[in-house]
Amino acid sequence: MTCVQLTASVMLNMLGAAIIFMPTKLAEIGTLSILSWIVTIIGATTISYVFSKCGTFSRRGGGLGGYSSYAFGKSGSFMANYTYAISLLIANLTIAISIVGYFMVLFGWSLSPIEAGVASFLILFVCSIPVAGGASIVGRLCNFSSLGILIPILFLATVGWHWFSLDRFIASWNPQNMALFDGVSAGISMTLWGFLGIEAAGANAEQVENPEKSVPIAMLCSTVGSGVIYILATNIAFGIVDVGEIARSTAPFGLVFGSMFGDGVSKFVMGLMAVSCMGSLMSWQFTISEVFRSSSEQDYFPKIFSVVSRQNAPVYGIGIILAIQGVLAVVSASPRLQEQFYILKDIAVVTNLVPYLLVFSSVVVLMRHESVKLNTATRSGFAAAAASAYCLYALYACGANAVLWGALTTFAGFQLYGLAAAKLEFQGKLIEF
Question: Is the pTM of this model over 0.70?
Fold first, then answer.
C-alpha cells in the first residue's frame, strides 16, 4: 500500500458515517462552531501523529490494547480493548440512528421512539449480514458505497458556494448568545466524533511502503484533509439554509440540497447518503466483531466471540453484539431522534477517549522498550502529552452526564478484568508482557 492509498483509506474511514448528521448538532451552536473545528483539527492531528508512531514502532499486536500494555501490562491491555469495544458498540448504534433519521424524511415516516429504536436495530441487522461473508465482501461493499457520501459532500464543498450567503452565515454566528469558551466546548464532542477511527490507521503500518515515513504523512494528511471537508461542508450548509431549520432536521444535507435544487434532488441525495452510510456501518460492524474476537483470543472476553465460520467470520460474536445493540436501541429511545443520537454519541466519545489516554500514557515506555531514536522518542512524548491534554478537555466538553455514564462503564470494566484475570491465573497465563 502506498502513502496515497493509505491516506485515502483513512479519510474514507473517518468521513464514511460521521458527517451525515453532523450539521444538526452544530447548527444549534451556530457558525461559531467553526472554532470548535479548528481546535479539534489541531487535537486530532496530534492524536493521529501519536498513533502513527505507535503503529510504526510497536511490535505487539492488539492495536490500542497492545500499545497500552507497554506501561500497564495485561490490565491496561484489557481496559483499552474493553472500553474501545463498548465505544464501538454504542457508536454503531448512533450511525444506525442517523440512517433512520434520513429514511424518516425520505419516506415521510412518523415513528414513535420505540419504533425508531426497532428500525435502528433492523438497520444494524441488515448491515451485519455481509459480515458473515468475511472481510473481502465487506471491503468491496464499503469501497463502492463510500461514493454515495463523498460525491454529494464534495459537490457541496466546491460548487455549493454559488448558493452561499455570507450575510446568513454571519447572522448565524451565535444564536444562543453563549460565551466564547462555552460555545467552542459545546461543539467539541460533535467535531471529535468526526475523527473517531483515526486509531485504526496505525494497524496498517506493516502493509505500507516505507512505514516510518509514510504512516505519519498519511495520518496527518488524512486528518487535515477530512477536517477541511468537514468545515467546508457544514459551514457552506449554514450559509445556504438557516441554522434554525437545520437544527430541527433529521436529514440536514437533504434539507440543504432541497433548498438548492428542489425535492427531487433532495430525496435522491438523502437516499444516496443513507445507503452509503449503511455501507460504512457494515465496515464498523465487521470492525467491532474483530475487536471482540481479538479480545476473546487473548482470554479477555468469552470464547464464543472467537468462534468463526468457514468464511473466518465470528458469526456467534456478531449475533451477541446485535442483541446488545438491540437492547440499547430500545432502552435509549427518545421522543426526539436527535436527542437519542446526541446522548449515545457523547457516551461513545467518552468511552473511546479512555483507551486513547491509556495509549498516550504508554508512549514513553513504548519508545524506550523498542529502542527508538532519542529525538523521535522525545517528539512523540511531547505529542502524547499534548494529545492527553486535548482528550481531557474533550471529556469535559462531553458534559457531566456523558462522563458519568462513561465512568460507570469504565469502572465496570475493572470488575470484568478481575474475572478475566482469575481465569488467566488459573491457566497460568497471568504474567506481564
Answer: yes
